[in-house]
Amino acid sequence: MSLGSCSCRGNKRCDFCFASQNAVKHPEDMESLILCCKCSRLCPPFSKEDTSQDACNHAVSEHMLRGFHVIDNFISSEEEKTLVQAMDEAGWVDAQSGRRKQDYGPMINYRNRKLKLDTFNGLPSYLLPLSRRLQTVEGLEHYVIAQQQTLDYSNERDSFLLAHVDDGWLWGQHILGINLLSHTTLSFIQPELNLLVSVTIPARSLYIMSGESRYNWAHAVLPKHIAARRICITLRELGEGVSVDQPEVAAEIVRIAATFQGTPRPTSSAQTA
Question: 150, 152, 101, 148: which is closest to 259 by C-alpha?
Fold first, then answer.
C-alpha cells in the first residue's frame, strides 16, 4: 500500500482520508468496561496502581458479554512465522480503513444477497491443519469453514475496523479469529446500553464470537489499539439463511472451500463486508 493513497469507499475512512481529523474516536461518553482474562467477568478498567485483578476481587459490572471466548497459544511461534511468510508471499491488496487484505471466498453483494463463485478457488493450503485443530475445540467439532478473510493492520497507517455486526443471513453462529504478530484490543459496543467493552487479544490466540457477542454486540478495532503490525485470520461458516434460500450455492461454496488449494481473490469494487 503506497503512502499518500488509500482504498477507502463509502463511509469507511483511514487517516489519509481525514488528514488532520481522527478517523475513529473513542466514545468517551460511553461507560467503559474490560473483560477480565482471569475470571471472564466484566469490570471497570484497572488503574496502573490497582493490583486487585491478581486475585480477581475487583468490582464486577452487572453487564455480561456472553458467547465470547479466547484460547491462548492456539498456534506456536514457529507456526506463526510460517503463516505470515505464506501470506506475504501470496501478496496483499489495499483495503478500507488503512488495512490490507486477502480474501478466500465468494464475491458478495450483501444488499441483494447475490454470490459469485467464479473467482473462488478454495481456502489456502496452510489453513488445512488449522481447520482440523479447530474441530478439537469444544463447540466447534462440526465447524466447516466457508470463507477466510485475512486483514493486515499497521500502526503506521492508523488502521482500524469500524464497529459492525457480521451478516446474519450469509454467516453462521460462530465467527472465529486467529490473531498474529502482536496483541490487540477488540472493542464491543452496545449503543442501547451506552456501553463499550475492551477485550485483550494476545498474539497467537484464537477468539470465538457466538451467541450474544456475535449478534447483540457490534465489534470494532480502534486505531489506538494497533501498536505494531497485526494480522487477523477471520474464519466464517455459512448461515442457515443462505443454506435454506440458496442450497445449491451453499453446497458449492463448501465444496470449493474444502479443496484447500486456493489463492487470494483478485481485488474488485463489488460490495463486501
Answer: 148
Tallying the residues shown for the chain, one arrives at 273
Question: Which residues pair with residue 161 across a beta bridge?
Answer: 221
Per-residue pLDDT tens for 196-221?
999 999 999 999 999 999 999 999 99
Decide if pLDDT at 230 tops 90. yes
The count of other CB atoms within 10 Å of the CB of residue 193 is 13
Please state, in angstroms and rounded to a whole number, the distance separating the CA atoms of residues 195 and 218. 11
CA 212 to chain centre: 16
pTM of the model: 0.84
Handedness of CA 135, 137, 141, 145 (dihedral sign): negative
Residue pair 179/207 in contact by the 8 Å Cβ criterion: yes
Q: What residues contact residue 143 under an 8 Å CB cut-off, 6+ apart?
A: 134, 135, 174, 176, 237
State residue 149 phi and psi, 5-degree precision.
-125, 120
Label residue 47 by pLDDT band (50, 70, 90). Answer: low
Query: Which residues are CB-neighbours of 108 under 8 A, at least 6 positions away?
Result: 114, 115, 170, 270, 271, 272, 273
Phi, psi of 200 (to 5 degrees): -80, 130
